[in-house]
Amino acid sequence: MPDVNIEMMVGWLIEYMEEGAEKMIQMDMAGKVTLITGAGGGIGGGIANVFAQAGAKVCVADLELEEAVAKADSLVKQGYRAEAVGLDVTRKDEVDRLVERLVKENGRIDHLINCAGIAVSKPYMESTEEEFRKILEVNLIAVDTCCRAVLAKMIPRREGKIVNILSASSRMGGDFYSHYSASKFALLGLTQSIGLAAARHNINVNGICPGLIVTKLGEKQGGGLVQQMAKYSGKPEDLLQENLRKSIPLRRFQSAEDIGYMALFLCSDLAANITCQAINVCGGMRMN
Ligand SMILES: NC(=O)c1ccc[n+]([C@@H]2O[C@H](COP(=O)([O-])OP(=O)(O)OC[C@H]3O[C@@H](n4cnc5c(N)ncnc54)[C@H](O)[C@@H]3O)[C@@H](O)[C@H]2O)c1
């Protein structure tokens, strides 16, 4: 029987707890491969920063190749691992080809973050069926395409995490973003359903509902929410933006990195028991 006294046992316990605490806060993604769609944009770019800083090799995929290259280059210059890819998520052939190549080169895809998205902001009666179809194609059907392609590679390994970027508009409709909101409500349902199907393969699928982040969202579709509200109300953009900020209980817009931190948590071992959830990161704007 070794000579063990109470001081030694307390010492071991403290050492054990300190090791545990270190593991808990590190969220080390070294050796992991993260595919982020829409990562040339605002939120996707912030998510790419966070995963790269955590040590993952990040695939920055975006329809806008120039934006993707700029993001990946800036990460590589800072000493992180990143590559840029031009990708139209609505093209199944492009998605399948990219996933095949990533797995061939890296042996794995650990995380898929579906962040590519578009928005049309205008009063419901002025929005068109054509716009609605396009929004559904990018925000909903393409997420399904990306999930299927990546799940086919994750399932045999019984390992992987998927995070879909939903919206505060997944919880509440709005006159100015009716079709966008419909696409994000539907994406919430899809996230839960894919999460159920993937759970039996030990794969977690979750969503994040960001509140308000100032990005270029909607610009290519005729203007973002604030610009469109200004156009229709005749009120100045900065006043409308300030009113929106004041409508957030924490009185601040979210940052792209705020969404990245939640995505990182959901992809970490700390979130092993979380799946089929949609988590609000919105400064208290939504509570359901
Ligand atoms: N900005 C916000 O306040 C906010 C709030 C809630 C949810 N979101 C969601 O966050 C996601 C990112 O939005 P963002 O605010 O960063 O906007 P953003 O416009 O800055 O980024 C979106 C990116 O998606 C890319 N994209 C569009 N269509 C694509 C396609 N077919 N294939 C590949 N890439 C495509 C764009 O090129 C762009 O880089 C979207 O899904 C959006 O709905 C944004």
Write a structural description.
It is a single chain. With 288 residues, this protein is of the alpha/beta class. The protein has one domain: Rossmann fold (3-Layer(aba) Sandwich), CATH 3.40.50.720. It is built from nine helices and seven strands. It has helices at residues 6-26, 42-53, 65-77, 92-106, 129-157, 178-199, 225-233, 237-246, 256-267; strands at residues 33-37, 57-62, 81-86, 111-114, 161-165, 204-210, 278-281. Strands 3-2-1-4-5-6-7 form a seven-stranded parallel β-sheet, sandwiched between helices. Helix 2 (42-53) packs across helix 9, helix 5 runs parallel beside helix 6 and helix 7 (225-233) packs across helix 8 (237-246). The model has no long low-confidence stretch (mean pLDDT 93). Nicotinamide-adenine-dinucleotide binds at residues 37-38, 40-44, 62-64, 67, 87-90, 115-119, 138, 165, 167, 210, 212-213, 215-217.
